[in-house]
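Dear H.,

Thanks for agreeing to be a second pair of eyes. The structure we're designing against is below in token form, covering all 348 positions.
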């Protein structure tokens, strides 16, 4: 697959281009917000699927109750997905005035997700709690891979619009599937770069990776598939899960498998450090004692003697859920894994 068809590679290239533009025109961008938006912010939003010229998706200079926002990113039906507030390059002032501005936006537009950016620095507010700190990214200072990954996971237009019925040849569905698969691969610090793609510098060199192969239905029906050794099960549905202690459970969805595996991990490792992440790059945690920042989560059943609440992040694809379960298996004590964890797929 060429780099042109990969959302992650395309975004990484867009970030490099934006960073180069900021370097070349820094003095102008530090004095003019309109130019900052046109040169730095608009190109990155377009790379994330937000067409500034499409009024169904983006409203620029949107005013409501005397509050004006620079970019209002919308879901179908005009529901607000996120707000992006633009500043001059190097013009973000982290003070109480900014906190009040963010709070005003969240209350006025009934939304928690607000981004503040000067084109290079991107601050992601995802909680109405005034004491919650934003997640900060810097296109020049932070890992290119980590930055692109975070933006795709939280600001890509596919999260708001999904698959459009009139999209030709399922193009958007393929885009989302490719995105999710590559994120799972790269978060595991292992990827096989496409031969036709130009090399892209990242902070952590990728390891050799064998691309997962879509598993034919005939191979999955009525057989246990080891979680540590299964292919791409996107489009399949689980019927049963076998936990590492040999317990078998009936399930309906992949989120059920993920939840049972997480609860088993907590039962065999009650001192598990929380928040618990998939990779050293962190990002959104797999499990945490708060659901803030998870967007979609479920509360786990934890032993009463642990005296804590634990939430599981569930807003992810099948291939990512399987990758999360592999991470959990690695964290379990060896004595708690008496059999290989596995799933059985539903007959098709």
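And this is the sequence the design step returned. I haven't edited it by hand at all.
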């Amino acid at each position: 697959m060429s780099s042109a068809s990969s959302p992650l590679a395309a975004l990484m290239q867009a970030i490099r281009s934006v960073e180069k533009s900021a370097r070349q025109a820094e003095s102008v961008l530090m004095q003019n917000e309109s130019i900052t938006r046109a040169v730095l912010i608009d190109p990155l939003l377009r790379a994330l699927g937000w067409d500034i010229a499409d009024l169904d998706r983006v409203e620029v200079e949107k005013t409501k109750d005397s509050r004006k926002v620079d970019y209002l990113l919308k879901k179908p039906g005009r529901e607000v997905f996120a707000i992006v507030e633009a500043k001059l390059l190097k013009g973000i002032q982290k003070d109480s005035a900014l906190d009040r501005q963010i709070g005003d936006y969240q209350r006025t537009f009934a939304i928690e997700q607000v981004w503040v950016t000067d084109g290079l620095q991107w601050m992601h507010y995802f909680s109405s709690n005034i004491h919650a700190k934003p997640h900060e990214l810097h296109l020049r200072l932070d890992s290119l891979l980590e930055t692109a990954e975070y933006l795709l996971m939280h600001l890509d237009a596919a999260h708001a619009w999904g698959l459009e019925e009139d999209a030709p040849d399922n193009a958007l569905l393929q885009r989302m599937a490719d995105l999710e698969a590559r994120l799972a691969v790269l978060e595991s610090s292992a990827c096989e770069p496409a031969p036709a793609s130009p090399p892209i510098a990242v902070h952590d060199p990728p390891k050799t990776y064998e691309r997962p192969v879509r598993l034919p239905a005939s191979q999955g029906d009525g057989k246990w598939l080891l979680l540590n050794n299964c292919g791409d099960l996107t489009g399949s549905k689980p019927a049963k899960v076998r936990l590492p202690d040999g317990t078998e459970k009936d399930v309906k969805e992949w989120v059920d498998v993920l939840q049972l595996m997480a609860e088993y991990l907590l039962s065999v490792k009650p001192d598990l450090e929380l928040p618990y992440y998939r990779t050293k790059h962190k990002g959104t945690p797999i499990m945490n004692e708060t659901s803030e920042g998870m967007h979609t989560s479920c509360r786990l059943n934890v032993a009463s003697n642990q005296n804590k609440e634990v939430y599981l992040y569930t807003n992810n694809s099948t291939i990512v859920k399987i990758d999360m379960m592999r991470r959990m298996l690695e964290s379990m004590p060896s004595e708690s894994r008496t059999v290989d964890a596995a799933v059985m797929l539903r007959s098709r």
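Two observations from my side: The chain has ten helices and 13 strands. Residues 217-345 form one domain.

Warmly,
E.
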